[in-house]
Every structure is written in structure tokens, then in C-alpha cells.
């Protein structure tokens, strides 16, 4: 029995997993195990020795079973410990930085302008880029032979269809289908044969139109001054008389130069002011073309989005908007600290 105990002690030390432990258990206390074999030998012994022998075997059996239980708990603990070590999370690792896309500066400017006008009660409408000559020119009081057509070099699709040269045809489209009052802004792409550092053959405009009863030039001034100061901050705004065939009277609007704060610089041609949009009271001929009653009048305005974006973000070449240079576009991502 002593040698069996020694054998067990040395074997149990080297066991490292549950399967080997199971085998060890069965080879000592299993049905055909060494201890079970002793019980069988007991039969041939006299009664007195039998009791003593039985007690010793039971002691040894109890000892082995205890040791096996302990070893089993040891193995469990070891397995758990190893799993914990393997699944260890290193919280000192810096977090992975999520990559956010960037909103194109033109889109961003359109959204910002739309938001301002929506906050003033304007709807947003969209017109097509391929347009009838009738809506782009004729119904806006620019007949075929009108010299004002030279102001905008046009891409024609055929005699009657063209790529719109401004967003003003949306005025006609909405008014001919909607009874007054109307109040909307309409952003979109427009096309002209024009190209230099501040002009592009495709660019974006936002049109604005408000028609109701008793609308005055002072309403136009109030809305546009409010809008310009919401967009650019507290800048001086001035109205200059101008000419558009579809408005009368017409004006161009200047803001104090963003670059030199009105002192005079190369960007503002040393005038201290920058022209930002065209506007006026809708011409009676236009209102008559869409069959609005004489009791209705209103104002319209149109602005170049690229111009607004260039001034707001200090961009000096319009081509940057359309080259898709990722280094330029990334500067408008959320991560660059700019929000919509
Ligand atoms: C018009 O297009 C008028 N439809 C605006 C208007 C609407 C006036 C309603 C009155 C009432 P104009 O041709 O000036 O106006 O163009 C408006 C703006 O578009 C300009 O101030 C300028 O900022 C921008 N723009 C004109 N041509 C280009 C171009 N090739 N590239 C980029 N921006 C341009």
C-alpha cells in the first residue's frame, strides 16, 4: 500500500489536464484500479486482519480521492487564469480614430444658406438643369433679340432647349403651377461659357422668390441684410442700383470686404466692398407671364454659391472646388472641427 501511495503521489504531480487526471483516477480507484484490486484480495484474510486491512485501504482510497479533487480544482483554477491572461484588454492602448467623411464645401454652403432661409420661413424648391429657352429667357422678360442674352453665354441643346444659365427659371416653373403667395429658395447647378479664377463653366446659384400682396423694396432689404449677417457675421451691407430684365427696380448687393475688413485690398479692388448677389422687385411682365393678378408683387434674388464659399472659407481659386483634391476636401471634414 505504501508503494502504491508513493506511486500515486509522484504521478499526480505531473498531471496537467482533466483527461490525464481522469485516467489516473480510474487506474487507482476505478473498477479495475489498483485499490479495487486490494479489496478483492481481502476475501482470503482472517476476520481480524480483514477489518484492519479494510480500514487501511479505505484510508488510502479516501486520500487518493481527496488528492484527485484538489488536483481537479487546481487544474480548473489554472485553466481560468490562463483564459483571463489571454483575454486581457490593454486599456492603455490609444483608441482607434474613426474616419469621418467630409461634406463638400459647396454642399456645406448650400445647406447653410438653405437653413438660414428656412428659419425665415422660405421653402426649398428644385428645378431642372436642362431647361426650355422659354423659361430660362423668354418668360423672364428676355425675348430672343434682347441684348441681355449676351450677358450670359449659353450652352444650347437645340433651338428651344439649353443648359440653364441661372436658377431664375425656377421662379417661372413654381409660379405657373402655384397660386400666390409663394416664398422659396432654390439651389442648383447652372452653366455658362465662362472660365477664369473666379468663374467656372458649371457653378451653383441659389434663387430666392417671395410673392404676396403689398411687398416693398424695404422687405427685400430686410430679408437680405438679415441673411447676409447670419451667414457672414456682422458685416456692412450696401445696395447699388443695377439692371436685370426680370426685376425692376434692380440692385446689386455688396458686403464689406471680408479679407481687409473694408480697408481696401487686391480682392476688393481697393473699394472695401465685394459684390455678392443680384436682386430686385419682380418685373410686372414676369408676373403677367405666369398670370398672377395685379394685386400681387414681390422680390427675387440670385447668388453664386462658389462666391459665398470662397469668401467664407478664404479660398482664392474656384477650380479648387472641382478638382477633387482630397487634401483640400478633408479640410471640410467633421474632424477638421467644422460642423454643418
Ligand atoms: C443672375 O444670374 C441673376 N439670375 C440673379 C438674379 C436673380 C437677379 C433674381 C435678380 C433677381 P448674375 O449673372 O449676376 O445674375 O449671376 C449671379 C451670381 O452668380 C454672380 O454674382 C456670381 O457670384 C455668380 N456667377 C456668375 N457667373 C459665374 C461663373 N461663371 N462662375 C461662378 N460664379 C458665377
Beta-strand portion reads 15-25%
> Helical stretch count?
11
Assign the CATH topology of the largest domain: BirA Bifunctional Protein, domain 2
What would you call the structural class?
A: alpha+beta
Question: In total, how many beta strands?
Answer: 9
Query: Which regions are unreliable across 5 or more consecutive residues at pLDDT < 50?
Result: none
The termini sit apart by 86 Å
Give the strand order, joined by hyphens, for the main sheet: 1-4-5-9-8-7-6
Average pLDDT number:
90
Shape: rod-shaped
The CATH H-level superfamily of the largest domain is Bira Bifunctional Protein, Domain 2
Q: Percent of residues in helical segments?
A: 40-55%
Domain module count: 2
CATH class of the largest domain, named Alpha Beta
At CATH's second level, what is the architecture of the largest domain? 2-Layer Sandwich
Major pleated sheet? 7 strands, mixed
| Radius of gyration, in angstroms, nearest whole number | 44 Å
Amino acid at each position: 500500500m505504501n508503494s502504491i501511495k508513493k506511486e500515486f503521489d509522484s504521478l499526480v504531480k505531473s498531471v496537467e489536464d482533466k483527461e490525464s487526471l481522469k485516467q489516473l483516477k480510474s487506474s487507482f480507484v476505478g473498477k479495475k484500479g489498483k485499490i479495487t484490486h486490494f479489496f478483492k484480495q481481502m476475501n482470503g484474510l482472517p476476520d481480524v486482519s480483514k477489518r484492519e486491512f479494510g480500514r487501511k485501504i479505505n484510508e488510502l482510497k479516501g486520500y487518493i480521492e481527496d488528492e484527485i479533487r484538489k488536483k481537479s480544482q487546481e487544474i480548473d483554477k489554472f485553466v481560468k487564469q490562463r483564459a483571463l491572461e489571454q483575454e486581457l484588454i490593454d486599456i492603455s492602448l490609444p483608441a482607434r480614430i474613426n474616419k469621418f467623411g467630409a461634406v463638400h464645401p459647396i454642399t456645406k454652403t448650400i445647406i447653410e444658406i438653405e437653413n438660414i432661409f428656412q428659419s425665415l420661413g422660405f421653402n426649398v424648391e428644385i428645378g431642372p438643369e436642362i431647361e426650355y429657352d422659354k423659361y430660362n429667357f423668354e418668360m423672364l422678360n428676355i425675348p430672343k433679340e434682347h441684348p441681355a442674352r449676351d450677358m450670359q453665354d449659353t450652352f444650347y441643346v437645340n433651338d428651344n432647349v439649353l443648359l440653364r444659365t441661372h436658377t431664375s427659371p425656377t421662379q417661372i416653373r413654381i409660379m405657373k403651377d402655384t397660386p400666390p403667395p409663394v416664398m422659396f429658395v432654390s439651389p442648383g447647378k447652372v452653366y455658362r461659357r465662362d472660365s477664369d479664377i473666379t468663374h467656372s463653366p458649371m457653378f451653383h446659384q441659389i434663387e430666392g422668390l417671395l410673392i404676396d400682396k403689398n411687398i416693398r423694396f424695404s422687405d427685400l432689404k430686410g430679408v437680405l441684410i438679415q441673411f447676409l449677417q447670419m451667414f457672414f457675421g456682422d458685416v456692412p451691407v450696401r445696395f447699388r442700383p443695377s439692371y436685370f430684365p426680370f426685376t425692376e427696380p434692380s440692385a446689386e448687393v455688396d458686403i464689406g470686404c471680408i479679407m481687409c475688413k473694408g480697408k481696401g485690398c487686391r480682392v476688393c479692388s481697393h473699394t472695401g466692398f465685394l459684390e455678392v448677389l443680384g436682386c430686385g422687385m419682380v418685373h410686372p411682365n414676369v408676373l403677367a407671364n405666369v398670370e398672377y393678378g395685379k394685386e400681387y408683387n414681390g422680390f427675387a434674388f440670385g447668388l453664386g454659391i462658389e462666391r459665398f464659399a470662397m469668401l467664407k472659407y478664404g479660398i482664392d481659386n474656384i477650380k479648387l472646388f472641382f478638382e477633387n483634391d482630397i487634401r483640400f476636401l478633408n479640410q471640410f471634414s467633421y474632424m477638421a472641427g467644422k460642423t454643418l
